[in-house]
Design brief:
The chain is an alpha+beta fold. The chain is built from 5 helices and 8 strands; from the N terminus they run E-E-E-H-E-E-H-H-E-E-H-H-E. It is globular, with a radius of gyration of 22 Å. It starts with 9 loop residues before the first strand and ends with a strand. The structure holds iron/sulfur cluster (SF4). Residues 162-168, 201, 203, 205-206 line the site of iron/sulfur cluster (SF4).
């Protein structure tokens, strides 16, 4: 099993309702909830993020297809929304996309583009079988952090958060080797490689100490 993203999406919430900071591979952004449910509406809410994913995947997939075909369709937009309904006693979520092309397209092109939109990677994933799992770790060993240093950085390892999934040991074994003592060898790779690997730790067990 290999995760799709090289770096997991990490999100953090503090006591302030309900602002979250989401870290992605090149930066951070804020999410929030609408005022009517107690947030401050300072960022997109989770439903908006989900629909944004559908919208942007649709557009990027269409762009690739149109460019490959050499069609003259420079600009296009999509509006996405969803509703829930109960069908035969089962709760069903329906996501609708309205595609808007700002230049004329033929009936044949329109039909093809709707088909391509339906098979964009995020649509295919949502229409397939999706499992959303959760694992929990608690930072009960904050006094038991181990640190490893080279001349430039210090890596902090918190065994209480380590899932022992071995991702670090598989991807950068010259640094992370559980068979050795100490198990982190800061001379085994460049500082940049170590930083990148630390960022891939799915549980936050590895951190760059501030
Ligand atoms: S990647 Fe993180 S959680 Fe996985 S084994 Fe390494 S330190 Fe532990």
């Amino acid at each position: 099993m290999e995760y799709l993203l090289d770096y997991p999406v990490k999100a953090l919430i503090e006591p302030e309702k309900y602002k979250c900071t989401v870290e992605w591979r090149h930066g951070k952004f804020i999410t929030d909830e609408p005022r009517e449910i107690g947030g401050k509406d300072e960022g997109p809410d989770p439903h908006t993020l989900l629909l944004s994913s559908v919208a942007t995947c649709t557009l990027a997939t269409l762009r690739m297809y149109i460019d490959r075909k050499g069609w003259d369709i420079p600009d296009m937009a999509v509006a996405v929304n969803m509703y829930h309904e109960t069908k035969d006693g089962k709760s069903v979520t329906v996501i609708d996309r309205d595609l808007n092309f700002f230049t004329p397209v033929t009936d044949e092109q329109r039909e093809r583009l709707v088909h391509i939109a339906k098979v964009c990677p995020i649509s295919k994933m949502l229409e397939g079988e999706v499992q959303v799992r959760a694992f929990a770790y608690s930072d009960h060993s904050s006094l038991d952090k181990h640190t490893y240093t080279n001349e430039e950085i210090t890596v902090e390892w918190n065994p209480g958060l380590c899932r022992h999934a071995g991702r670090c040991a598989t991807q950068l074994p010259q640094v992370f080797n559980p068979a050795e003592k100490p198990w982190i060898n800061m001379d085994g790779a460049t500082t940049r490689e170590i930083r990148e690997q630390v960022a891939r730790c799915p549980t936050g067990a590895l951190k760059i100490a501030k």
